[in-house]
Every structure is written in C-alpha cells, then in structure tokens.
Amino acid sequence: MYDYLIVGSGLFGSTFAYEAHKRGKKCLVIDKRDHQGGNVYCEDVEGVNVHKYGAHIFHTNNKEIWEYVNQFVEFNRYTNSPIANYQGEIYNMPFNMNTFNKLWGVVTPDEAAAKIEEQKQTAGIDKPKNLEEQAISLVGSDIYEKLIKGYTEKQWGRSCTDLPAFIIKRLPVRFTYDNNYFNDRYQGIPIGGYNKIIEKMLGNTEVQLNTDFFANREELIKKADKVVFTGMIDQYFNYEHGVLEYRSLDFEHEIHDLPNYQGNAVVNYTDRETPYTRMIEHKHFEFGKQDKTVVTKEYPKEWQHGDEPYYPVNDERNNDLYKKYKGLADQQENVIFGGRLGTYKYYDMHQVIGAALQTVKKELDS
Ligand code: FAD
Ligand code: UDP
C-alpha cells in the first residue's frame, strides 16, 4: 500500500513525490511513457542533450523556486535569444529595438514608439479583444504581419482573431537593444540536462513506466490512499462534458555532420508557408563543442486521440468546459489534480513546480 499513487512523472508529479517522500510518505509514480520526466525529458544523441519534447529553457522571477531547482543541479548562464526567419529575412526576438531598427530603420526608442502608435491608430484599436488586436496594439501591424500572424496561426491552428490576447503577452516588448526572450531575473539550462533534476527528485520513489492509468484504473486506485493525477482532466472523467481541445506537435530530429547548423539554439519560422514553427539546435543551449549537431523541427497539429496533448487551448469555449471538469474534480475527496494537463493551464516549468509545492503544503503541512 502507498499513501499516494502519482499519475505522471513530469515536473508536477516528480516535485510532489520528492516532497511527499521528505515528509515520510510512500508514493508510487506511474507513467505511460517509457521514460520519466514528462516533457522535460532529454536524450543523449551524439553527445548532445536533445530536448525530446521541444526547447525547454528554465526561467523564473521567484528566488525560492530558483533556489529549489538549484539544490538538484547547477544551471548554466544560457540566455534565450531566438531569431525569427521571415521568408529569409532575419529579425531579433523578442520585439525590441534591434527588431524595430531592422524593420523600420528607427534608431531611438521614441522613433520606435511613434511608429507603433501610428500603426495602432491606423488599425483603430482601443481595447484589444483578441490576439490580433492585442499584437497590433503592442507592436504595430508590420510586426504583426511578419513575425506574429503566420507563426501563431500555425501554432494554434486558429485565426488570431479567435485566440485569447494573453498568449501574445507572454513575449516582452522592449524599447532597449536587448534580445533576452524573458524578463525574469533567473534563467538557464541545467548542466547535464533536465533528467538530472528528475533523477534526484524520484531517486527514493518507486516508478513504474509503460503504465497507463486508464488501462488498469480500478486496480491502480486500490494501491494508494490518494491519487495525484497529472494527465488530461477530461479523460479522467471519461469526457462526460465533452472533449477539451489541445494542440499537439510532431518533432522531426535530424543529425548533421557539421559543428554548427543554424548559429542559434532557436530559430522561429514566422511565415505561414513553412510547415514548422521552430527549429532547435540543441547543442547551443549548452555551448556544445561536439563535432556533429542535432536539430529538431516542430510541426504543430490539432490534438486527436492517441496524440500527445502538449498545449491547452485556453479560449473561452475550452475554459468554460474546463470549469465543468474543475467542478467535478473539486468533489473528488481522494484525488488531487495538478500540472499542465490536470489543471488545463498553459504553465511554464517554474509555475508547475510552484503549483506542486503549494499543493504539497496544503496537503501535508496544514
Ligand atoms: P508533463 O511534463 O506533461 O507530465 C505529465 C506526465 O504524465 C507525462 O509524462 C505523461 O506521459 C504522463 N501521463 C499522462 N497521462 C497519463 C496516464 N493516463 N497514465 C500514466 N501517465 C500519464 N516551460 C518552460 O518553463 N520553459 C520552456 O522553454 C518551455 N518550453 C516548452 C516547449 C514545449 C514544446 C512544450 C510542450 C512545453 C514547454 N514548456 C516550457 C512547458 C513545460 O513543458 C511544462 O510546464 C512542464 O513540463 C509540465 O509538467 P507537468 O508535470 O505538468 O506535465
Ligand atoms: N509568437 C509569435 N511569433 C514568434 C514567437 C511567438 O507570434 O516568433 C507567439 C505565438 O502566438 C506563440 C506565443 O507568441 O504561441 C507564445 O510564444 P512562446 O515562445 O512563449 O511559446 P511556447 O514556447 O510556449 O510554445
């Protein structure tokens, strides 16, 4: 018998398991995949740590979370500075003075701000109601057309007018010549890869891989007093209110027999025609000196049964549906829902760890 059956060995499940073990609780972690770590899992290919489920850059403003992850592994000084490739034209991301200068030839912040204001006025946007209006009011219509519209419509499979504004607010807009993609105080990549964190978190906990909760639900539940569930919340309730929408991805990994393929860790392809959104060159996350290099293209697609659900689609329809599932979840006395899929939230890693620590506190310290 276990105190907790933890469904999912991603960052939420692993943080919960580590903290519960520290408090003397016995946990069993199961995962349907053949490895632990969820989406932060890395694989060694040609000596390069390959982020198997897309680029993962750790960033946070929260000192406690930063110190928390640093107890497991040391982080390097990587700063994410993606570039955008729009039909062969290269722009710096996020939107900053380098971007504005290349696009418009403006040199001072005042000139850039005036250009954006002019385009915002022309578009006649007062209170942005959707992603398109939000984007134009933040950076103007030229940047929207070249760097946002195509990328966003590929990524989400929906028109920018049907998407919530908050998605584009993830990206900084800066009137300085600073290409750092994040505003957070702390940022880096774990030296040796993310698996090191997960191995330490789960070092004292029993983990069963290749085990799908839904293949054997009744038996598994009997093994523990409580369940921590980090899979899809709608699946947990047999989709009884309907199916939540997710975006999925196909990853295409390639090995190239040369030391440097694209000159940057992340290159975004922002036109509508290129079928992938980003190309990642993994070695640059760790300043790698290997002879070969590994790159990954990300092809977004609509999630269908059997695909991995990578992103919740937090539009109004889905958020309303999620509320219904949340209502059901709140009635479950012995089940705790957590993580990106269990709470249907577009969480970054630091937020997932923060949420897991809060959950443990509420569950075991009060
Ligand atoms: P997951 O990592 O998804 O773990 C859930 C686990 O549950 C999985 O291992 C899954 O196999 C398992 N599971 C699900 N259902 C079942 C079942 N029925 N039975 C058994 N096991 C099950 N965050 C950042 O901070 N920085 C980034 O740069 C960043 N980049 C990202 C890029 C991509 C492409 C994606 C998709 C996400 C990115 N994130 C990033 C977000 C980050 O991956 C998540 O915040 C975090 O990994 C979520 O952890 P989790 O434990 O909630 O979920
Ligand atoms: N985005 C964009 N152009 C880019 C990069 C991002 O329009 O070159 C938009 C897009 O809508 C994306 C959102 O900004 O979904 C958030 O980007 P982020 O890099 O945070 O996405 P994630 O890493 O979570 O996929």
CATH topology of the largest domain: Rossmann fold
- Most strands sheet: 7 strands, mixed
Anisotropy-based shape: globular
Cα-to-Cα separation, first versus last residue: 23 Å
Helix percentage range: 25-40%
Offer a concise description of the structure.
With 366 residues, the chain is of the alpha/beta class.
Descriptive notes:
The structure is a single chain. The chain has helices at residues 11-22, 63-70, 97-104, 109-123, 131-156, 195-201, 217-222, 233-236, 316-330, 339-342, 349-365, and strands at residues 2-7, 27-30, 42-45, 48-51, 58-60, 83-86, 89-92, 186-188, 206-208, 224-229, 246-256, 266-269, 278-281, 293-302, 311-312, 335-337. The protein is α/β, with parallel strands linked by helices and 366 residues long. It has three domains: 2-74 and 187-245 and 313-364, NAD(P)-binding Rossmann-like Domain (Rossmann fold, 3-Layer(aba) Sandwich); 88-168, no CATH class; 247-302, no CATH class. Helix 1 runs parallel beside helix 11 and helix 4 (109-123) packs across helix 5 (131-156). The structure holds flavin-adenine dinucleotide and uridine-5'-diphosphate (UDP). Residues 84, 93, 147-148, 151-152, 155, 167-168, 170-171, 268, 270 line the site of uridine-5'-diphosphate.
Key features of this structure:
binds flavin-adenine dinucleotide, alpha/beta, binds uridine-5'-diphosphate, 11 helices, 366 residues, Rossmann fold, 3 domains
